[in-house]
Amino acid sequence: MLNFSKKLIDWYLQNKRALPWRTTRDPYYIWLSEIILQQTRVEQGTPYYFRFTSTFPTIKALADADEDTVLKLWQGLGYYSRARNLHSTAKKIAYEYDSIFPDTYKEIVKLKGVGDYTASAIASICFDEPTAVVDGNVYRVLSRIFGIDTPIDSTLGKKEFKALAQKLIDVRDPATFNQAIMEFGATQCKPKNPYCLHCPFNTDCIAFQQGKIESLPYKAGKTKVRDRFFNYLILKTPSAHTLLQKREEKGIWQGLFDFPLLESDVDLEKTELIAQLDLFSLKGVSGSVAFKSLKIKSIVLESNEPIIHKLSHQKLNVKFWVVRIADTSELQTIPIADFKKYAVPRVIDRFMESFDFENY
């Protein structure tokens, strides 16, 4: 298509949003913004960008932080592996590269947690390397304008779209081109209700001309969502202490703290929960502590309806059970007043915002 890059950049210069990371070419800040914005809307991610840049103004500052601090700052963004990889990569750059960020796509893409898209964005925006970005926004723009129905979740599709984006990129100004096509997909050629009537490409766009806007881009497979059933035990001692445990095993919330968790195959009623608790153990001061060895005063379900917490591939059905126990030195409990100091999954944080622990 003639003048694709010129039309795109002209649109961008007139319509781009004023975003904080667009005022810098510092690779640390660009990298940080790109990692935050993976799986996250700009509106949600911007406050986190400011928190991270003010708390960790340099890569060295981020590298020197402990993981719990990083995860606490990340709390609410989800996909916590992003935060762990961010921290790990900051250490590598700070300690192995003397805080000097790699300046080529080839080296950037080797960093932990950095894929083709992020490496292309950093290399082009910070170092003027003409490497085209391809993400969900770019798939949508290119598939619609050029009428491409190759599945974007196939190996062939990924290669085809990358090659096309690379062919279209303005090699004289790759930074602006890449930001323009991402912005165009985010604000103009949106997934739903795109602004086709006021689009600079509407006379050329095959999807618009052929009525295929809703069907492109095409995805071959649908992600199967797995149902999981979580039963959180909120222990309460007479002195208003509770128990939080760090999730050490690999999984969706590795490194975060949560209440003792009993995961079941189905939704449990109280009698069924109690039966399973006979085999349940907790982390104690000097090893595991059998739940049945505790002096239980009562077990109460806080709400009859489970809280539904949706993740990309999982649907969590979450129940919170308040377990009143006598004081015990076997468990390393914390004052409930200290709860906010710990990085916890968003579903727990939201629940605790309205839960009256003290008077329950």
TrEMBL record:
<keyword id="KW-0378">Hydrolase</keyword>
<dbReference type="InterPro" id="IPR003265">
    <property type="entry name" value="HhH-GPD_domain"/>
</dbReference>
<dbReference type="InterPro" id="IPR005760">
    <property type="entry name" value="A/G_AdeGlyc_MutY"/>
</dbReference>
<dbReference type="GO" id="GO:0006284">
    <property type="term" value="P:base-excision repair"/>
</dbReference>
<comment type="similarity">
    <text>Belongs to the Nth/MutY family.</text>
</comment>
<dbReference type="GO" id="GO:0000701">
    <property type="term" value="F:purine-specific mismatch base pair DNA N-glycosylase activity"/>
</dbReference>
<dbReference type="InterPro" id="IPR029119">
    <property type="entry name" value="MutY_C"/>
</dbReference>
<dbReference type="GO" id="GO:0034039">
    <property type="term" value="F:8-oxo-7,8-dihydroguanine DNA N-glycosylase activity"/>
</dbReference>
<keyword id="KW-0408">Iron</keyword>
<keyword id="KW-0004">4Fe-4S</keyword>
<dbReference type="InterPro" id="IPR015797">
    <property type="entry name" value="NUDIX_hydrolase-like_dom_sf"/>
</dbReference>
<comment type="function">
    <text>Adenine glycosylase active on G-A mispairs. MutY also corrects error-prone DNA synthesis past GO lesions which are due to the oxidatively damaged form of guanine: 7,8-dihydro-8-oxoguanine (8-oxo-dGTP).</text>
</comment>
<keyword id="KW-0227">DNA damage</keyword>
<dbReference type="InterPro" id="IPR023170">
    <property type="entry name" value="HhH_base_excis_C"/>
</dbReference>
<dbReference type="InterPro" id="IPR011257">
    <property type="entry name" value="DNA_glycosylase"/>
</dbReference>
<dbReference type="Pfam" id="PF00633">
    <property type="entry name" value="HHH"/>
</dbReference>
<keyword id="KW-0411">Iron-sulfur</keyword>
<dbReference type="InterPro" id="IPR000445">
    <property type="entry name" value="HhH_motif"/>
</dbReference>
<dbReference type="GO" id="GO:0046872">
    <property type="term" value="F:metal ion binding"/>
</dbReference>
<dbReference type="GO" id="GO:0006298">
    <property type="term" value="P:mismatch repair"/>
</dbReference>
<dbReference type="GO" id="GO:0035485">
    <property type="term" value="F:adenine/guanine mispair binding"/>
</dbReference>
<keyword id="KW-0326">Glycosidase</keyword>
<dbReference type="GO" id="GO:0032357">
    <property type="term" value="F:oxidized purine DNA binding"/>
</dbReference>
<dbReference type="Pfam" id="PF14815">
    <property type="entry name" value="NUDIX_4"/>
</dbReference>
<dbReference type="GO" id="GO:0051539">
    <property type="term" value="F:4 iron, 4 sulfur cluster binding"/>
</dbReference>
<protein>
    <recommendedName>
        <fullName>Adenine DNA glycosylase</fullName>
        <ecNumber>3.2.2.31</ecNumber>
    </recommendedName>
</protein>
<dbReference type="InterPro" id="IPR044298">
    <property type="entry name" value="MIG/MutY"/>
</dbReference>
<keyword id="KW-0479">Metal-binding</keyword>
<feature type="domain" description="HhH-GPD">
    <location>
        <begin position="36"/>
        <end position="187"/>
    </location>
</feature>
<dbReference type="Pfam" id="PF00730">
    <property type="entry name" value="HhH-GPD"/>
</dbReference>
<keyword id="KW-0234">DNA repair</keyword>
